[in-house]
């Protein structure tokens, strides 16, 4: 599931506390949730109309709303969604009864992982059903257009099933001298081929019908209805007609030079297939995998430190260098394999008929072939190494976009680990690979903490209400072997190994040092600094912060510590105690992802937050979603009554900024307003 995918869940008869626990469980697993709660049929109907849920999570414990009534109401609503029942335990009879009622999934209250898996599975299944309907509609439209295009084409085109004509266009009839398709219906296509070419044509037709490897075209003498012949090139392509597999056959009187076609498919610098042709080959491989073909994989190959290589040899030698690199790659490509250029210096290779070990051996041989020989570029000689990222291809990931994303992520991971590295995406070996990556990132983290290897950026938070001074969000990066690394890569590892408190203290110390320097320059500044769950529970952090603030002589409120609403809900007692102590030191506190819970404002009764950072899910395509504008306006109105400031993050366009101002938002932040910049003392 995509990390930024939002699951809309309607909780029916579940207590607020139970619902918040499930919401926190999903968010801690990296899944965004838009919740609502209903306790009667009227509230269910309102939620169905306003929230438009993906999943309805029914809790039978209170038993105020019978499950059958809820299922009937959902069925009457007419929208495709998943009904999931939350139970304490299951038995065969219970499962049978629930599924007979229309339930799609059963989640066990005492098994959080099972519950999250069921909700994820049901959401993915729902998305698949919706996508299938869209694809079916698109297919019908494509077939309609293709049929119209077929009739308007000047090329003679026919569809053949078991050697018999089942469809032909007007140009086909005119070419062979027939007035009506009824004259061709069920006529063997072999009758339109001269006797001298009948046998090779029949053999080729049979090979294509059996999905065997065969030539895509053949030159022959075609025969008209009057017995006259003409020279033609016949092209074959697999197709469907009225849901049945068949062959599309095109008779072309003139053949474009095959060498010219090959030249158009090639990259002029490397001689490999160009990007368009390579993507076509990936689509072909994916189609074959969907039909059960095994032993395929996609590899992405790049020279290490490409920019440094260009600096060494000069831009004038870039093409020569890439051509030499491509020659080393293509030297190991077999007859059934495909190699092509996907970007300026990224080569994609599709390997076929190789098991996992053979793929790994091919990569090893390639890297040795590249690294062991010197690259001669005129008067210069250099050594080059290569990093490889790829993905094995099977039925489960038989999707071109998914396959490219998996291979691309694997290549980025390989490049981030230094030169000459390999990462191969393999679901069967995911746990082992994850453990290896964990060890690698842990070493990088420990090195960064010991050697001041982190970097701070800041992004301006702009006041729409003319607040005095500058406001900025502090953003963390880590220096890696291939450049700066985003926290999404290393913070999960830091949390797993108990390093987040040390990282938080490093960030806070640097932020305080920068604020002290700005105060000396007369620049009034406020920093928003993220805090992790471990730091909230660190009993020594407040004393340390108080000492740091005393030494720096900062004014009250210059540091706003922030934490996500879902994390605070799960750590309510320690969060309450920490915020109370932090306020005594003159600090301020912000709740991120505010408005994502069932009753977010109720949380303010326990945790005294000064700033409410509205959940980013409300910002996506804000001008096109009036319901989100209404929700933001309600949050701002309520916040103003409670004398809290509101902040809208992830603002990406001018229209959204204007709408947020009209809603009463106090601060806005996003790349549209300012890209993150490196923090300078």
TrEMBL record:
<dbReference type="Pfam" id="PF00989">
    <property type="entry name" value="PAS"/>
</dbReference>
<feature type="coiled-coil region">
    <location>
        <begin position="125"/>
        <end position="152"/>
    </location>
</feature>
<protein>
    <submittedName>
        <fullName>EAL domain-containing protein</fullName>
    </submittedName>
</protein>
<dbReference type="Pfam" id="PF00990">
    <property type="entry name" value="GGDEF"/>
</dbReference>
<dbReference type="Pfam" id="PF00563">
    <property type="entry name" value="EAL"/>
</dbReference>
<dbReference type="InterPro" id="IPR013767">
    <property type="entry name" value="PAS_fold"/>
</dbReference>
<dbReference type="InterPro" id="IPR035919">
    <property type="entry name" value="EAL_sf"/>
</dbReference>
<dbReference type="InterPro" id="IPR035965">
    <property type="entry name" value="PAS-like_dom_sf"/>
</dbReference>
<feature type="domain" description="EAL">
    <location>
        <begin position="438"/>
        <end position="681"/>
    </location>
</feature>
<dbReference type="InterPro" id="IPR000014">
    <property type="entry name" value="PAS"/>
</dbReference>
<dbReference type="InterPro" id="IPR000160">
    <property type="entry name" value="GGDEF_dom"/>
</dbReference>
<feature type="domain" description="GGDEF">
    <location>
        <begin position="294"/>
        <end position="427"/>
    </location>
</feature>
<dbReference type="InterPro" id="IPR001633">
    <property type="entry name" value="EAL_dom"/>
</dbReference>
<dbReference type="InterPro" id="IPR050706">
    <property type="entry name" value="Cyclic-di-GMP_PDE-like"/>
</dbReference>
<dbReference type="InterPro" id="IPR029787">
    <property type="entry name" value="Nucleotide_cyclase"/>
</dbReference>
<dbReference type="InterPro" id="IPR011006">
    <property type="entry name" value="CheY-like_superfamily"/>
</dbReference>
<keyword id="KW-0175">Coiled coil</keyword>
<dbReference type="InterPro" id="IPR043128">
    <property type="entry name" value="Rev_trsase/Diguanyl_cyclase"/>
</dbReference>
